[in-house]
Structure formats: structure tokens, C-alpha cells
Write a structure and sequence with these properties.
alpha/beta; Rossmann fold; 19% strand; Flavoprotein-like_sf
């Protein structure tokens, strides 16, 4: 069994939701996994005690959260000595024509931070129309016009995340950690019940 941290930055909550799903999937494979919002980590926080790290960030106006970028840059040497993965959440990842643009955001992030994660995942985000004010709702409808269809309620919340892809990414990360560290997940159940 290994200890896996899923550290993330989120703007509207979808990256947090994906981080929790990744944590659950890794835990179900018998590992100890926990999710932590980069903004909520204690001042004394270190990566000691973790065997592997998954970092997640979302794209807003073409940029990842500063806190995530700063964390990765500051901890690049520690991250390079352990199994790591990065996942990005964006509307561009949900749009076939814009996936290259989404990949460019990942490349920019890795270049800026000097980090080379072992695994990379890209997932579609969500639109939280119920939380937007009038102007933001108009702006987001314009940005996401290629993704919005008549079947989708344009004033309700819309999720573009492929949860099967998230589960597959998390399982791949867990398998990579197992191979890299030579650990076997603890899948035994407590038989004392």
C-alpha cells in the first residue's frame, strides 16, 4: 500500500470534484489517498510522508491557478523523485476541435514549472450557470457556444467531464505507482465483522 496525495486548485469546484473521484478510485485499489486544495494546506505542509503525488489544475482565461504553479515550481525537485501525475480541467478538453489548445496549456504549465510528470490527464470541465451573474453567464455562453446544444439547458449547470476517463486515469496512476514502487495494494477486507 502506498500513500498518494491529490493536490489541486479549483476555480468553480469541478477540479475538486474530479480530485475527489481520483482519490476514491485510488483508495478502492487499496492505497491510502487524500485530496487537498492547494489553498487550504497548512503552512508547515511538506510532501514527506507521501509516496506519490497527483496535481490538478483548471484553466481560467488561458491560465492555471497561480498557487498550483507556484507549488509545483517550489517542490519540483521533490516531485521529480517520486511517481507523479498531472491533470488539467478545461472546457477546451471537452471540445474535439480545441483539444490541441488544451494540450498547449499543459505544455505551457510544464515548461513554466520545469516539471515532468509521469502521467498526464485532460478532462472537460463544467459550466455553473446557476452560480453566474448575468454578464458572466453571457460571456460563458459565448465561450462555450460550440459545446452548448439545444438538448442542454443553457441556464442550468452542465458537466462536460468524462467520468470513465477520470476513472481510467486514476487506475493508470495507481498501477504506475504500484509498478514504480514495487508495492501491492492492500485489498484485503476486514473479516472480523
Amino acid at each position: 500500500m502506498s500513500s498518494v496525495l491529490v493536490l489541486y486548485g479549483t476555480g468553480e469546484g469541478q477540479t475538486a470534484k474530479i480530485a475527489e473521484r481520483i482519490t476514491t478510485t485510488i483508495s478502492e485499489r487499496g492505497h491510502e489517498a487524500s485530496a487537498l486544495d492547494v489553498r487550504n494546506r497548512p503552512e508547515s505542509f511538506t510532501l514527506e510522508g507521501y509516496d506519490a503525488v497527483v496535481v490538478g489544475a483548471s484553466i481560467h482565461v488561458g491560465k492555471h491557478q497561480d498557487e498550483v504553479r507556484d507549488f509545483v515550481t517550489d517542490n519540483r525537485n521533490t516531485l521529480s523523485g517520486m511517481p507523479t501525475a498531472f491533470f488539467q480541467v478545461s472546457l477546451s478538453s471537452a471540445n474535439e476541435e480545441k483539444r490541441e489548445e488544451a494540450a498547449g496549456y499543459v505544455e505551457s504549465f510544464l515548461t513554466e514549472t520545469g516539471w515532468d510528470p509521469d502521467r498526464i490527464g485532460q478532462f472537460g470541465g463544467a459550466l455553473r450557470f446557476s452560480e453566474y451573474g448575468f454578464l458572466k453567464r453571457l460571456m460563458m455562453k459565448r465561450i462555450a457556444k460550440d459545446l452548448l446544444t439545444e438538448e442542454r439547458e443553457q441556464d442550468g449547470d452542465i458537466e462536460f467531464t468524462d467520468w470513465d476517463a477520470v476513472d481510467a486515469f486514476a487506475a493508470d496512476v495507481a498501477a504506475f505507482v504500484e509498478n514504480r514502487l514495487g508495492v501491492t495494494p492492500d485489498t484485503t477486507e476486514d473479516s472480523s465483522e
